[in-house]
Specification:
The chain is of the alpha+beta class. It has one domain: 3-Layer(aba) Sandwich (Aminopeptidase). It has four helices and six strands; from the N terminus they run H-H-E-E-E-H-E-H-E-E. Strand 3, helix 3 and strand 4 form a beta-alpha-beta unit. It starts with a helix and ends with a strand. Keywords: Acyltransferase, Transferase. Pfam families: Acetyltransf_1. One of its GO terms (molecular function) is acyltransferase activity, transferring groups other than amino-acyl groups. It comes from Mucilaginibacter frigoritolerans.
């Protein structure tokens, strides 16, 4: 995770992501603290080619001390509401193939696998399972 964070969260990368008009960030505030956040991508900001009537959840992160408080579900439902309001056909995401807890969470929320893609942590090849929920 440190290798991923070192690449994914550089000041330059964060600035680029925040400047993209096709990406949106949302924060869950718990007791005046950030308990979690979510990054959504639309159109050309999506990390895999998809139709324009789709929304990608690129990230949902909940801080460790806030696990079990339904923050992930709250963020996921918020993303689904955004996609429904835009009358999108589906919402999709990528999840590491060995993250069984997250896969179960998404399956329980109506997501189904539709493909995979490779990503690298340093020189180590990893696989994300692509999952989507029809709306």
């Amino acid at each position: 995770m440190e290798a991923y964070s070192a690449v994914a969260f550089t000041p330059e990368k964060i600035h680029t992501e925040l400047s993209n008009p096709d990406s949106e960030f949302y924060f869950a505030i718990v007791d005046n603290e950030i308990g979690g956040y979510m990054k959504l991508n639309f159109g050309n900001a999506q990390t895999e080619p998809q139709s324009n009537d789709t929304l990608e959840i690129e990230r949902i992160y909940v801080s460790g001390e806030h696990h079990g408080k339904k923050i992930g579900k709250l963020l996921l439902n918020f993303a689904i509401d955004i996609a429904l309001n835009k009358q999108f056909g589906y919402i999709w995401l990528g999840v590491w193939e060995h993250n069984k807890q997250a896969i179960g969470f998404y399956e329980h929320s109506g997501f189904k696998p539709f493909g995979s893609h490779d990503f690298f942590l340093g020189d180590d090849r990893q696989v994300d399972l692509l999952m989507r929920k029809e709306l």
